[in-house]
Amino acid sequence: MFAYIPARIGSKRIPKKNIRLLDGKPIICHVIENLSKVHGLKGIAVSTDSEEIQAIVSGYKNVVTLALRHNEIATDDATFIDLIQHDLPRFQQYFMSNQVLFSLATSALIPDSLFQQGVNTFLTKSQGLVMSVKHLPSDTCLALQQTDSGHIEPLFPSNYEKPTKYLPKLVVDAGGFYIFNANDLKGLGMFIELKPITPVYLPERIGIDIDTEDDWQEMLKQYQLTRSI
Questions:
Q1: Is residue 81 part of a domain?
Q2: Is omega for the bond preceding 196 within 30 degrees of 0, making it cis?
Q3: DSSP string of the chain?
Q4: Can you give the pTM of this predicted structure?
Q5: What is the sign of the dihedral through the CA atoms of 154, 158, 159 and 160?
Q6: 28 Cβ partners below 8 Å, 6+ apart?
Q7: Range of the domain at 92
Q8: For the chain, which end, N or C, has fewer CB atoms within 10 Å of the first or last residue's CB respectively?
């Protein structure tokens, strides 16, 4: 198994977010250093379209970048599946492995212990998908959606027939990491089409997907809290 971190330079909402400084260090470096402590990884692949990012990560002996990523799969519209189909194979060939720990470059709050838990879980099962998730409040099951007419209606009407103590437990993709066999994703359009899906639960304070400036400020806050514990 190897780790794969996609790290393009052209983020629009948070410019250069994959190398934005967190405690004086590019955020991707925190991820690399945490992954470097995980047993069972052959190395860490960083896929980037940027010479700047390539130079930053090249100082790590266990990091491989290969050639810069093609521009066609370094756009805002490129999906994870696009990367898996058109970029990941070159790293599979390099590491001679189809087992992949796919981590976002901004997953700096995830400690090596939770990455390790994911790896151990996958190696035990060797099938399906292991993914980081975080809990949602149970009353999310009673969500209402707005219709085109401007009215609202229950998203899950049957849940209104149940006592709240019987509402299902919900989780959501934490946007942290995914572990899978890349060959099992061939022909699929999304990660979550892999079955079974086994969760690794992230505490709310570290399950932060960085999409906005508010997310970044929460990342800074939680990082400082983590350091003070």
A1: yes
A2: yes
A3: -EEEEE--S--SSSTTGGG-EETTEEHHHHHHHHHTT-TT---EEEE-S-HHHHHHHTTSTTEE--SPPPGGGSSTT--HHHHHHHTHHHHHHHHT--EEEEE-TT-TTS-HHHHHHHHHHHHHH-SSEEEEEEEE-GGGGG-EEE-TTS-EEESSGGGGGS-GGGSPPEEEEEEEEEEEEGGGGTT-SSGGGSSSEEEEEPPTTT-----SHHHHHHHHHHHHHHHH-
A4: 0.91
A5: positive
A6: 5, 7, 18, 19, 46, 53, 56, 57, 105, 106
A7: 2-133+173-228
A8: C
* pLDDT of res. 191: 85
List the CATH number of the domain containing 204: 3.90.550.10
Q: Is 118 left (phi over 0), alpha (psi -120 to 50) or beta?
A: alpha
Residue found by looking up tokens 């599979």 in the block: 92
Check: CB of residue 115 under 8 Å from CB of residue 122.
no
Is 147 a domain residue?
no
pLDDT in the model for residue 228 = 60
